[in-house]
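JOB MANIFEST
job_type = single_chain_structure
chain_count = 1
residues = 333
[input]
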Amino acid sequence: MDRYDEAARHLIDVGVGRTNFTNIVVAAEALDRGITVRRATSSSRMVLEHQGRMRTWAGGSTNHNDDLLKKIASYKDVASRLFRDLKISAPENAVFGVSESARAWAWASPFTRSVIKPHNGRQGQNVHAGIATEEEFHTAFHRVAAASSQILVEEFYTGVEHRCLVVEGSLVAATQRRPASVLGDGRTSISDLVRAKNRDRGPIHKDLVIDAVAREYLDRHGYRPDTVPRAAERVYLRSTSNLHTGGDAVDATDEIRDEERELVERAARALRGLRIVGFDVLLPRGDGDVHAASVLEINASPMVSMHHFPWSGEPRDAARHVVDSLFPRTVRR
């Protein structure tokens, strides 16, 4: 962690201030190469400069990516339609207003299951996945509508969610994003397992919480916080896998199949202005996964640090590829 501690101190010294680890890992790589890292004159964004070339960086957001493509990435329904037009598997979706719950259900009812979430939501907040009944649908719709003016409804696809980081058209790292969960030992309750897991979540992982969402999810699957799971039984607290809601990053770079690598790299080629991009993809990993590998979302501000600090698996030096793209003249041979 020494080089990361030094990078964090440098960012504080130059006025960027306390920052996230996606900034820190990129700053550390840049500083190692003699690239100037400073604060922007008109904001707290990080600026990197070398031999007359300047790039901004703030938690994965960069002027190295094309503004129009970043805009497309922010509209999940537009991105999904683009991919389907290019014969890249992506779930069908549509956007509805807050008063259109009945219309949304009429559109989604042919699906076996649905997902409801804010149209431009971030960090896995207020996402309701695997909805099967009309009652569940309207309840979830109104919860999202209470906090968002536009609600995205899409077909629920089976598979295991992964974040794939693509830099200059090449897949450089992949992480399985596992929903917030605990592993039973046959003796300890779910609530105590949560407390034990929270004692050391490392630099990027968030604490697990047993809140109303978790309690509802546990109850739906026959658990309570005081339930004692069997040894080696994994109990999930949520259906969504975002790290900001307690999910685990599990390195899966070496497990990506050739056809899956081709899928994400072809998706990146369709968005050439996004030179550094993360794709949320669903990959078939179980007997019940009936869909082919599919692209769920585009992330024009990808969380690079998850690949450096996985909860389990091999750390990947994703920042090296990022800085290679930002400053190709500094590439280390």
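[summary]
The CA atoms of residues 66 and 273 lie 5 Å apart.
The chain has a mean pLDDT of 93.
exit_status = 0
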